[in-house]
């Protein structure tokens, strides 16, 4: 797909199930064939995209959910040649999420092999490739007929440590570059921390073990985990006992040690102790916030910190021209009026996708809704402009002019840009994108679309309570920094609660 300024190339991710190697740290073998296919596709792009009007020296990857996690793996994989791509857009997905990587791929390969009547070798470390050969002979119909599910909050098919595409010590190389030096613990990565004893902060030479070479734009929505709740729970809320079951399930499946301490820390941090009676709606909202932070927000913010913090990389001639990398973070906080969820629930996982791809501009397509308001059309144009600018230049602020807006709203909206500041691990500034009530009433018939730039020392999210006002106010405070709170669950009590000194600035289309 091509316009005057950019060429869009689409390729699908593939789920892997061919990793039967029980000891990738001793005998590395390629098993992430889905990621290898993506790398092959990128080589094709490098060789051929110029024929379609594209620039092989200006490649941006964008993915959502598991697609974003795959891109994150490509960013840190040693098998990816320098210069194969140059920027990344991660939407609601990170390599550090519990669902991003298969924790025990051999277990699922063996289950598939037994269903396919494959011979299980006595010495798996030596003869595991016999299982892979047997599974390769299976037809797609045979594989799809097998029901194989992972525990809640984990995944059965997807990337896994193979020692080649994803190194056995990828967590060490990636996570020990964390600016504070703290080693976080998210899901399977927590198990790697405990099993492989990877606590070092720097290599012996003192250099950072991972150096980022890519511009990065990443973002989340306000209520990422809402899709895990039933229609009844969404409508009526949940009681504390169900909250406890859900959180205990997450902790049991994602962590190995100190399970009780982790569970009670989560409940403590996501309980509004000022309320004397627990309301089912408030309990549901707090549980959504906890699971959203655990599975999406904290891991993605962690990746953003790792990729933006610390000294900038020293690029070699092979890497191309020397340039500093840029990082930008957004929070999409708008719920489509004619969407699938009841109003007031907030934006859910995937809520931003129709705006990223311009569905409101063309009155919907595919499974996206087809009835959009004028304000939603304008919001889509803003989102598309940010994404397109970043893909072209690495800066979403470039060319924010009235004449570059799409014709759908050019006649009825005046674009007033706000500067989207770069993200860094110290200040953690991000752009909040959504509809905001204006400080003054807009002109009759003019939609008000807000993109609020929020400077915050804490990551987005919260206790489920969101405030609306017609005046700029301090952002509702987080009970703690999501990132440092989740990464320190097993090491120390939560820090004292304090309100950051932040204010919203408005971007209005009116």
Kindly report how far apart the N and C termini lie: 31 Å
Helical residue percent band: 25-40%
Name the shape in a single word: globular
Low-confidence parts lasting 5 or more residues at pLDDT below 50? Answer: 178-209, 310-315, 411-415, 437-459, 461-510
Average the pLDDT over all residues and give the rounded result: 74
Number of discrete helical segments: 16
Total number of β-strand segments?
Answer: 8
Major sheet size, sense and barrel closure: 8 strands, mixed
Structure overview:
The protein is an alpha/beta fold. The protein has a domain at 1-167. It is 32% helix and 7% strand. It contains 16 helices and eight strands. The protein has helices at 33-48, 66-76, 105-115, 124-127, 129-136, 140-144, 170-175, 188-196, 231-236, 240-254, 259-269, 280-308, 353-356, 374-393, 407-410, 482-487, and strands at residues 60-64, 87-91, 215-221, 327-332, 430-434, 449-454, 504-505, 508-509. Strands 1, 2, 3, 4, 5, 6, 7 and 8 form an eight-stranded mixed β-sheet that branches. Helix 3 (105-115) crosses helix 5 (129-136). It is globular, with a radius of gyration of 23 Å. It starts with 32 loop residues before the first helix and ends with a strand. The model is unreliable at 178-209, 310-315, 411-415, 437-459 and 461-510 (pLDDT under 50). This is (diamondback moth) hypothetical protein. Residues 436-510 are annotated as: Disordered. InterPro entries: AB_hydrolase_fold (IPR029058), CarbesteraseB (IPR002018), Neuroligin/BSAL (IPR051093). Residues 470-480, 489-504 have a biased composition (Polar residues).
């Amino acid at each position: 797909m091509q316009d005057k300024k950019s060429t869009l190339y689409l390729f699908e991710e593939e789920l892997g199930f061919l990793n039967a190697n029980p000891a990738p740290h001793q005998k590395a073998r390629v098993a992430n064939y889905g990621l290898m296919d993506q790398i092959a596709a990128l080589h094709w792009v490098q060789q051929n995209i110029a024929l379609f009007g594209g620039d092989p020296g200006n490649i941006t990857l964008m993915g959502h959910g598991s697609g974003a996690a795959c891109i994150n793996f490509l960013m840190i994989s040693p098998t990816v040649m320098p210069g194969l791509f140059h920027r990344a857009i991660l939407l609601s997905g990170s390599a550090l999420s519990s669902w991003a990587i298969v924790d025990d791929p051999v277990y699922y390969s063996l289950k598939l092999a037994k269903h396919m009547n494959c011979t299980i070798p006595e010495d798996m470390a030596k003869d595991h490739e016999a299982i892979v050969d047997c599974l390769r002979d299976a037809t797609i119909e045979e594989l799809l007929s097998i029901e194989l599910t992972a525990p809640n909050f984990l995944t059965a098919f997807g990337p896994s440590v193979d020692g080649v595409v994803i190194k056995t010590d990828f967590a060490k190389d990636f996570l020990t570059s964390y600016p504070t030096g703290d080693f976080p613990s998210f899901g399977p990565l927590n198990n790697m921390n405990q099993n492989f004893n990877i606590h070092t902060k720097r290599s012996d030479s003192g250099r950072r073990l991972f150096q980022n070479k890519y511009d990065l734009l990443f973002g989340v929505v306000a209520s990422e985990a809402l899709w895990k709740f039933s229609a009844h729970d969404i409508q009526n809320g949940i009681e504390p006992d169900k909250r406890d079951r859900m959180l205990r399930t997450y902790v049991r499946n994602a962590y190995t040690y100190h399970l009780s301490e982790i569970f009670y820390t989560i409940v403590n941090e996501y309980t509004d102790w000022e309320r004397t009676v627990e309301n089912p709606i408030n309990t549901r909202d707090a549980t959504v916030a906890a699971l959203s932070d655990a599975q999406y927000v904290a891991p993605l913010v962690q990746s953003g910190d790792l990729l933006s913090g610390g000294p900038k990389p020293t690029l070699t001639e092979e890497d191309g021209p020397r340039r500093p990398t840029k990082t930008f973070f957004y929070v999409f906080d708008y719920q489509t009026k004619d969407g699938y969820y009841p109003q007031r629930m907030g934006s859910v996982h995937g809520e931003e996708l129709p705006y990223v791809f311009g569905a409101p501009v063309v009155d919907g397509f595919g499974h996206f809704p087809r009835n959009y308001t004028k304000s939603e059309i304008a919001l889509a144009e803003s989102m598309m402009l940010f994404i397109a600018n970043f893909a072209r230049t690495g800066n979403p602020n470039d060319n924010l002019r009235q004449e570059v807006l799409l014709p759908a709203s050019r006649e009825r909206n005046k674009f007033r840009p706000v500067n989207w500041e770069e993200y860094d691990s110290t200040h953690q500034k991000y752009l909040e994108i959504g509809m905001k009530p204006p400080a003054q009433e807009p002109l009759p018939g003019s939609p008000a679309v807000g993109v609020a730039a929020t400077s915050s020392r804490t990551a987005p999210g919260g206790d489920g309570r969101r405030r609306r006002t017609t005046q700029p106010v301090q952002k509702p405070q987080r009970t703690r920094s999501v990132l440092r709170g989740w990464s320190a669950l097993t090491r120390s009590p939560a820090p004292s609660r304090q309100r950051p000194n932040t204010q919203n600035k408005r971007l209005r289309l009116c």
